[in-house]
Amino acid sequence: MTRPAFDDIYMELAVNLAKRSHCIKRHVGAVLTKDTRIISIGYNGPPSGTHNCDEEYPEVGCPRDSKGGCSLAIHAEQNAILYAVKNHSSVEGATLYVTLSPCLACARIIYSMGIQRVIYLNSYAAYKGIASDEGVEFLLKFGVSTEKYQGNLDSGTHLI
């Protein structure tokens, strides 16, 4: 039996975490690691203690904010970072695995928190129909190693 690479293990987990999302538009999962250990996980959805969009607004999803985005959702990478910090785990020097490349707002947070590496599965720009992955470009410009996942998800997980 071949031992899977850590990148494959963590991306597989991110894909599975995305299945926990209550968003009706897009399911995204994230895994935050440091020194080959998981320090936090997250998926997109409303803040804990509020309501789930797929239950409260099953036909249309949550209300839109003034810019057309979800008025309730916290992005998967934000949830992973917030949970780590809330539990006093340092994220500086960590690696983030996420099923959708970070948006620009998330990229700013990732950079500010000192996360050193981001591996993403799918393009945010392609999902949103925009010209470029601004978040990826931002991270690369400021020295955060950022790459599209090139590994092998062969354990039977179906991509989202």
UniProtKB/TrEMBL annotation:
UniProt-listed GO biological process terms: pyrimidine nucleotide metabolic process
GO annotation, cellular component aspect: cytoplasm
Coiled coil start-end: none
Domain CMP/dCMP-type deaminase per the UniProt entry, residue ranges: 5-133
UniProt keywords, alphabetically: Hydrolase, Metal-binding, Zinc
Protein's UniProt name: Cytidine deaminase
GO molecular function: dCMP deaminase activity; zinc ion binding
Catalytic residues identified in the record: 77 (proton donor)
Gene3D superfamilies from the UniProt entry: Cytidine Deaminase, domain 2 (3.40.140.10)
Family statement: Belongs to the cytidine and deoxycytidylate deaminase family.
Keyword Metal-binding assigned: yes
Source organism: Pseudochryseolinea flava
